[in-house]
Automatic annotation (TrEMBL):
Residues 25-263 form the AB hydrolase-1 domain. PANTHER family: HYDROLASE, ALPHA/BETA FOLD FAMILY PROTEIN, NON-HEME CHLOROPEROXIDASE-RELATED. This is Alpha/beta hydrolase. It comes from Paractinoplanes ovalisporus. Pfam families: Abhydrolase_1 (PF00561). InterPro entries: AB_hydrolase (IPR050471), AB_hydrolase_1 (IPR000073), AB_hydrolase_fold (IPR029058), Epox_hydrolase-like (IPR000639). Keywords: Hydrolase, Oxidoreductase, Peroxidase.
Length: 277
């Protein structure tokens, strides 16, 4: 089991679990919430077959990483990512973020720059902001975040079961693009996460990334599903593309929030094509 230490909490270290496979140009995969690196299974095999070194890690509080009581803000999460890149001495890296992971990509670049990076990928992006506004009427506000947090405290496993439908659009895709077994596997990963971390992360949904996005000066790919019920394509993907007009922007028709699973073939085709450039 490979880990790096990113801090301490009282008498214990805060360690991040990671897997480091293959050789070639490095790709670092940063998962969505409330899941962990296991959610990249459909991408890891094709990336390795295409000749990439693939590093997938679990953010603090999730998967096989330590479960501290704090540090669930993008400044800290981006600092954790920076420690990983430095400890592994990675250069010419492509960062690939999904959902909450896109916040880490944006904040990492905003704070630490792009000296170590070759490119970046935003899949179902939080950036440039998820806060409800005139430009983003399908975003969230503080009351919405608090309602989600209250649902966790009441019955987190039941909330996860109910929300899996909107993560994967199960009313439309179950049995065709995703199996009950795959849903159960993802549910297990979400249920296994730290309750404190699961509760704390939604507060990050209100953070802004406009200044971070301005610092992106490397090739960028933006992928967004047209049927994402969590982060709308109008409010998120298209607004990020407007902020980064030189980025390659692709909408995956019918793709839900977790389209890396349901539409893996399309996602992988676009990802590999971008990396090959």
């Amino acid at each position: 089991m490979a880990t790096i230490t990113v801090g301490t909490e009282n008498s214990t270290s805060i360690d991040l679990y990671y897997e480091d496979h293959g050789s070639g140009p490095a790709v670092v995969l940063i998962s969505g919430w409330p899941f962990d690196s296991r959610s990249w299974e459909a991408q890891i095999h094709p990336l390795l077959a295409a000749g990439h070194r693939v590093i997938a890690y679990d953010r603090r509080g999730f998967g096989r990483s330590s479960r501290p009581a704090d540090g669930y803000d993008f400044d800290t999460l981006a600092a954790d990512l920076d420690t990983l890149l430095n400890e592994l001495d990675l250069h010419e890296v492509t960062l690939v973020g999904l959902s909450l992971g896109t916040g880490e990509v944006a904040r990492y670049i905003g704070v630490h720059g792009t000296q170590r990076l070759r490119a970046c990928v935003f899949i179902e992006s939080l950036a440039p902001s998820f806060t409800r506004s005139a430009d983003n009427p399908k975003g969230v506000d503080r009351a919405g975040v608090e309602a989600v947090q209250q649902a966790f405290r009441h019955d987190r496993p039941a909330w996860l079961t109910a929300t899996m439908n909107d993560f994967l659009n199960l009313d439309q895709l179950l049995g065709t693009r995703v199996s009950e077994d795959a849903v159960r596997n993802l549910w297990n990963a979400g249920a296994d996460a730290s309750p404190i971390a699961t509760w704390a992360c939604p507060r990050t949904w209100l953070e802004e990334f406009h200044n971070d996005v301005k610092r992106i000066d490397i090739p960028t790919l933006i992928l967004h599903g047209t049927a994402d019920r969590i982060l709308s394509v109008e409010g998120q993907g298209r607004r990020l593309h407007a902020a980064l007009p030189d980025a390659r922007y692709v909408e995956i028709d019918g793709g839900p929030h977790l389209m890396c699973l349901t539409h893996a073939e399309q996602v992988n085709r676009e990802l590999l094509a971008f990396l090959s450039r």
